[in-house]
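User: Design a sequence. Structure:
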């Protein structure tokens, strides 16, 4: 496979060489200028990266603290989450403060909002909207039904988790090293 790739590249370079030899003078000048700019640009980029100070290892990521800082109750390896207060979601949807919530069956999809006097108003039509309201200003929060439990959840931003953990908000990045997230101050 590698031999075939090298043969194709060799053939391509040969054809490019022929095309450049037969090209007009102004085309050759433009190609030379473009190649020079590309080489200088690559040299400057790699020169700066190689000449700069090394990145500083800060330590690991604290997912629990990061999620708590964003007002979530729990976390796993990927998401911060909080159980949805379904009564609060009813009141948000219907712009009220006096509603109750009950499931009509074992299904998490069977919930109904009730006005005083046990008058049913309907279900919660916009769980995602409620989560966006409850966890504003987050833009990536979503609603999820896991094991018949409604939660608001947000995918963990590992870079943000590092920034919160080490209270450094610029030049900090998270890196996954063999399945373990580590934080670095990037030089």
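Assistant: Done.
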């Amino acid at each position: 496979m590698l031999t075939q790739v090298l043969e194709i590249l060799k053939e391509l370079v040969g054809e490019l060489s022929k095309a450049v030899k037969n090209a007009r003078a102004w085309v050759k000048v433009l190609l030379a200028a473009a190649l020079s700019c590309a080489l200088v640009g690559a040299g400057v980029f790699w020169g700066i990266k190689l000449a700069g100070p090394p990145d500083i290892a800060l330590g690991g990521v604290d997912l629990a603290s990061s999620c708590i800082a964003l007002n979530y109750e729990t976390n796993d390896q990927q998401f911060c989450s909080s159980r949805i207060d379904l009564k609060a979601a009813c009141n948000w949807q219907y712009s009220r403060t006096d509603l109750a919530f009950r499931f009509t069956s074992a299904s998490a999809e069977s919930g109904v909002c009730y006005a005083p006097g046990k008058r049913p108003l309907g279900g919660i039509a916009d769980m995602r909207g409620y989560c966006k309201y409850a966890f504003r200003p987050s833009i990536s929060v979503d609603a999820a039904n896991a094991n018949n439990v409604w939660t608001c959840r947000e995918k963990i931003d590992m870079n943000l988790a590092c920034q919160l953990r080490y209270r450094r908000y610029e030049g900090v990045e998270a890196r996954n090293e063999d399945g373990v997230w580590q934080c670095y101050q990037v030089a």
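The chain has three domains: 2-51, 54-78+156-187, 82-154. The first helix runs from residue 2 to 22.
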